[in-house]
């Protein structure tokens, strides 16, 4: 909305007035709550205030006919602002936009009571009124946007020998290791948003059979042409199977798996698909410069990266990649948006051994930033959600009795 005023009362002894507006929402009990203040326009009786944004909830709690009260003041340095007058309106009136209905007389009740010839203390005019509908993450999902979930697992030697109980990759026949728990916790939530539940699962930092070549993006199921696993159970199965066949090695390079997903993400920019890469790692990263470069490039694409750090390492590098405090940059170029969410797994291991509670918390924190990252991509690209298809109604079968 944007407002201007005309011929407001002069309140300052030396100058004109320094007017500003205060907007109040009326509450159920008849009281008023301030919901917006404009800036002060100095030394004028005909101010034009800057346009401002306010949510419908803040203005009238979604009730279009509820009273909105507006007070006009003359600003004073000592904080004792002089009251010029007031008027009331409503969302419904304002939504008519710039028109004769939206020119308001500013009335000062005290003056009105004293002066017989009092008409008003000036007028306030609505210059413009625009409504923007905020769309949610679920509006896109309902409209058919697909979430593609890819898993990448750290197979570097720093994780420890999988046959030893001290290893983060320990193949314990009775319970999931740290990698398994992290995959299950996050994957079980994400798989609800992935309609085909087929997840490409990659490993990095291992020597592969038969020739022992080092790979930083190999298919866990052994099929590079089709690295898809069926559901999170399928990913876990492929993970445990590959632990038996590959040799943990190094170094810990993230860029190849990030670029792997980015190649897919760069081919669908119409908002119909969004890619989420989950990297589970013990955290000592070797290709920091290349990884930053990959993240800066990926920030322009429909993708997000989740890093779950397992084990006791210092995760300073991961926190840096997370970009919450300082946006990730590479060669002087900053990431267009924050696309990395990092969480240390150890913060979620419940001391009492109650993994269920911790896993729910882990999943919640890991996925907390995805909807906003997703929306920021869609907003900057001007992509609106497709309308949701009508709800499915099963056909009614007519039974023919055979004679």
TrEMBL record:
GO cellular component: plasma membrane
Keywords: Calcium, Metal-binding, Repeat
Source organism (scientific name): Lipotes vexillifer
Stated family: Belongs to the copine family.
Record bears the keyword Lyase: no
C2 domain segment(s): 1-104
GO biological process: cellular response to calcium ion
Superkingdom of the organism of origin: Eukaryota
Designated name of the protein: Copine-8
Annotated Pfam families: C2 (PF00168), Copine (PF07002)
The keyword Metal-binding belongs to this UniProt entry's keyword annotation: yes
One MF annotation (Gene Ontology) recorded for this entry: calcium-dependent phospholipid binding
Alphabetized InterPro entries for the sequence: C2_dom (IPR000008), C2_domain_sf (IPR035892), C2B_Copine (IPR037768), Copine (IPR045052), Copine_C (IPR010734), VWF_A (IPR002035), vWFA_dom_sf (IPR036465)
Residues of the VWFA domain: 148-349
């Amino acid at each position: 909305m944007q407002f201007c005023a005309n011929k407001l009362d002069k309140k300052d002894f030396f100058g004109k007035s320094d007017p500003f507006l205060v907007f109040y929402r009326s509450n159920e009990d008849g009281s008023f709550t301030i919901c917006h203040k404009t800036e002060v326009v100095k030394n004028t009786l005909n101010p034009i205030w800057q346009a401002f944004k306010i949510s419908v909830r803040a203005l009238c709690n979604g009730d279009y006919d509820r009273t909105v009260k507006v007070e006009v003041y003359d600003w004073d340095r000592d904080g004792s602002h002089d009251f010029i007058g007031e008027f009331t309106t409503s969302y419904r009136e304002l939504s008519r936009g710039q028109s004769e209905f939206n020119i308001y007389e500013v009335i000062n009740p005290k003056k009105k009571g004293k002066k017989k010839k009092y008409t008003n203390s000036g007028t306030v005019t609505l210059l413009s009124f625009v409504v923007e509908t905020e769309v949610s993450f679920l509006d896109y999902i309902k409209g058919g946007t697909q979430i593609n979930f890819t898993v990448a697992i750290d197979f570097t030697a720093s994780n420890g020998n999988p046959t030893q109980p001290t290893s983060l990759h320990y193949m314990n026949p009775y319970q999931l290791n740290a990698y398994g728990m992290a995959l299950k916790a996050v994957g079980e939530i994400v798989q609800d948003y992935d309609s085909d539940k087929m997840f490409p699962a990659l490993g990095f930092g291992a020597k592969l059979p038969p020739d022992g070549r080092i790979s930083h993006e190999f298919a866990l199921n052994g099929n590079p042409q089709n690295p898809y696993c069926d559901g999170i159970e399928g990913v876990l199965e492929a993970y445990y199977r590959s632990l038996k066949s590959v040799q943990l090695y190094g170094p810990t390079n993230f860029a190849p798996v990030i670029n792997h997903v980015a190649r897919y993400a760069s081919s669908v920019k119409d908002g119909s698909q969004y890619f989420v890469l989950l990297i589970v790692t013990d955290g000592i990263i070797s290709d920091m410069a290349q990884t930053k470069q990959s993240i800066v490039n990926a920030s322009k694409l429909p993708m997000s990266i989740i890093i779950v750090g397992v084990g006791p390492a210092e995760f300073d590098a991961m926190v840096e990649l997370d970009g919450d405090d300082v946006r990730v940059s590479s060669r002087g170029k900053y990431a267009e948006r924050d696309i990395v969410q990092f969480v240390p797994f150890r913060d979620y291991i419940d001391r009492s051994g109650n993994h269920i509670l911790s896993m729910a918390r882990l999943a919640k924190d890991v996925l907390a930033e995805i909807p906003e990252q997703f929306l920021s991509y869609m907003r900057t690209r001007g992509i609106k959600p497709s309308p949701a298809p009508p709800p499915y109604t099963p056909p009614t079968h007519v039974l023919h009795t055979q004679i």
